[in-house]
Amino acid sequence: xxxxxxxxxxxxxxxDAARGCDAIVHxxxxxxxxxxxxxxxxxxxxxxxxxxxxxxxxxxRRLVHxxxxxxxxDGRDHHGLADDAPVPxxxxxxxxxxxxxxxxxxxxxxGWLEVVTLRPKAIYGPGDRALVPRLLAAARAGRLxxxxxxxxxxxxxxxxxxxxxxxxxxxxDRGVGSTFLVTGxxxxxxxxxxxxxxxxxxxxxxxxxxxxxxxxxxxxAMEAVAAxxxxxxxxxxxxxxxxxxxxxxxxxxxRTVLDYAPNVRVADGVGRTIDALRRExxx
Length: 283
What we know:
The protein has 283 residues and is of the alpha/beta class. The chain has a single domain (11-282), classed as Rossmann fold (3-Layer(aba) Sandwich). Helices cover 45% and strands 14% of the residues. It has 10 helices and 12 strands. Strand 1 (23-26), helix 2 and strand 2 form a beta-alpha-beta unit. The longest helix is centred in the first third of the chain and has 22 residues, at 37-58. The two termini are 30 Å apart.
């Protein structure tokens, strides 16, 4: 298969690339804690609509749509949230809101297209350009305090397990028309994991501890300034909540319906990530 480089706003090129394909994995998105609303709509909503149009015009049979558990996050602690958890009326970021809108578009296409939506939580591993690099950049600049009490648990998903989940969604018909949470299958303490990552690449763990209410107030002020300057704030309310809240998920349906079985233990995945970062920083 020959790779084709195109853009989400070029429907004709997307359609040409999709011709002869049995399935599309739609993983393109703008994933960031802050930014202009129009940019998120263009990438996550209009981009998804364009991929669907290309799938229709090219006669594609199945679409595996990569979404996010962010569409379920209302800023509170979540313990063992399941696939059928309702989408809250108020989401915490432009990213979450536009990913939810994209999910609605995908569900609406189910009448003519086999659709499977996956919601992998916190994808990490070699090649990551979003999650871990942002943490490391903030720590290196001295702008990463521990937000909250530091006892919150989270789920994360190694990129290899995401690939496995996508493969499962492509090869079985049992998941068609459904949405699945995808994680590494472990609930881990977030801040000890962050400590391991930081120390593994030679960075110090933050000495400052900021209570969540104070972090939210400061982030709100930073966002107000950012709205005027156009510069990304050091901390957003969404990021503060992500760093302080428990977010764990129940992947029983992905296991039983898709035959998904995560293979990468967090300790191993974090070790691999550290090794990859060390190699990258040496080059």
